[in-house]
Amino acid sequence: MKKFFGLIAIILFLSLINFQAIVFAQSLSSRELISNAKQYDGKLITYSGEVVGEVMSRGEFSWVTINDGENALGVWVKSVLAKEIKFAGNYKERGDNLEITGIFNRACANHGGDLDIHAQSLRKVSDGGVIQEKLNFDKVRLGLILSGALFLIWILILFKRK
Amino acid sequence: MILKPRREDLKIIGFYLGKIILGLALTMVIPALVALCFRELNPALDFFVSIEISVLLGLFLIKICRTDKDLNWMQGMIVVSLSWLVAMVLGAIPLYLSGHWKSFLDACFDAMSGFATTGLGLVQDLDHLSYAHNLWRHLTMFLGGQGIVVIALSFFVRGFSGAFKMYVGEARDEKIMPNVINTSRFIWLVSIVYLILGTLALGITGVLSGMKPVNSFFHGACIFMAAFDTGGFSPQSQSILYYHSFAYEAITIILMVLGALNFKLHYHLWMGNRKELIKNIETRTLFVTVIVTFSVVAVGLAQTGAYPAAVTLLRKGFYQLISGHTGTGFQTIYAQQFGVDWNPLALAGIISAMALGGAVCSTTGAIKMLRIGIILKSFKEDLKRIIMPERAIVVEKFHHIREVFLEDKLARSALMITLAYLILYGLGALVGMFYGYPFLESLFESTSAAANVGLSCGITNTAMPAMLKITYMLQMWAGRLEFMSVFTILGFIFASLKGK
Fold first, then answer.
1. Nearest-CA residue of chain B relative to A147?
2. Number of folded domains in chain A?
3. Which of A6, B178, B285, B402 has its Cα between 20 and 30 A from that of B201?
4. CATH value at residue A61
5. Of B365, B342, B346, which is closest to residue B355 (Cα–Cα)?
């Protein structure tokens, strides 16, 4: 009987650990992570968002910046994994959407106290791409009208001088 | 009897305002060209439209108000006050047209924040902003840091006595050269030389940190402008944290400190007078206040245990402290962390540093080191008077470029401005509390706005009440111009309404 209860206790304990991992494995927002940094410090978490800026290679590892729409968090990821990233968001490009699972650090001892994530795995949720810039014709019209007004003033000034 | 301003006053003000607007329009050509270089069509249009509006307004004012009369003190001060407001509105046009600001008020907030070298921002989706708009945000800091009027004096105005009145109106009462226009040109020379050196240093560091060369040097130029002009904008939403680089942090600290030094001190250093750096009351006071405020921050952070390792505590604490003290506003932590990880003691240290500021005739805002030094010397003098025999003559001196006797007039003036700043910090905090924000956070954000710092503990965002946005904008404006020009314009408005 003792063995049975012992076994049940071990199973319960292991499920609790696993449960915690599952909870943190659900994608957390940057706001949640920053506001409750103490709670998540050193824990395995999942975070997802768009890659922005550029992938900064530092040898074996790289810095990837992931923005979930509220904040951008720095993710320290193996350069081999980072090679999967094809697009990083900027004015002309929409970055790849990634899901990162890794250890969250409230004040990373390896990186000067930065709040960061050390990625263990990386999954591309969706591909980014080039943003096709469409000319805004309202702005073109406004520009032309103002050019006309400036031209008129220039003519008036010339007339006045004569 | 209060005299109503004459039509002639308005004409003179309008004429010189028109010239300054034309100068501003010319500066917008730079981001327009950058937009064309990077093939950003809509941003190019945004700047094209903004330039046209500015030129039209400038020409209109010059033609309607044409005069050959010189400015008097009152007119000079009003031209300065108005030119900062007009610059805010015109500078906000390209920002608003980009679609990255939710309202024109938000765009005006960022334009004022830029020109006043504050660094608080309401931009949306900064990480997708065009090169052109990003450059403009940083350029507003470069222009505002040197002084909008200084630009006009340097390039558009050819020697007239009213120049000095406008120069003083922009909170710069120290002439480096005998002639105020040469002084303005010297300020530009210093800034351009540092721009080249700073951009090179940051650009190379960026490349070594894994950034692509074009991006790296673009970021380098932007970060230099924000650091040397103690502004605090950055091209990415993470501020300096984006770079994850100790070298980047070290270089920006040097640039922030250089920006916080008096341009007159720069002149003496350039002339080989290095002893001035050690003897000057401003650098001595800055050294002492940095140590004192950092000690407070360090004790506070040690209490919270947010940074268990001493090295990380030093790096994070010192960076935010220097950023706050010099009035820059770069952050290597998230705004929310001030509220979560920093305790009231650490926040009090940062608020004090922000309230003190850098040197006079520099690019910083706030009370400034010369005034703090003078006030401390006055205390010392008064203490001596109490301790020493009644017949003893107590004379206090301080070194600021030359030996200066501490006169009551100087102490009074320093105390007056200090008091005005303290009231301004307090008023903003009251408005923040009125809208339900806690006291310390309200004081933090208010001091940051009025001292033109730009550090944020999270209050500044698009969702904050419009009245609070306007309060911070007024604080940035009044804090940057050091009250005199602002009081003059208020007096002018009063005289227009009630005068005879």
1. B52
2. 2
3. B285
4. 2.40.50.140
5. B365
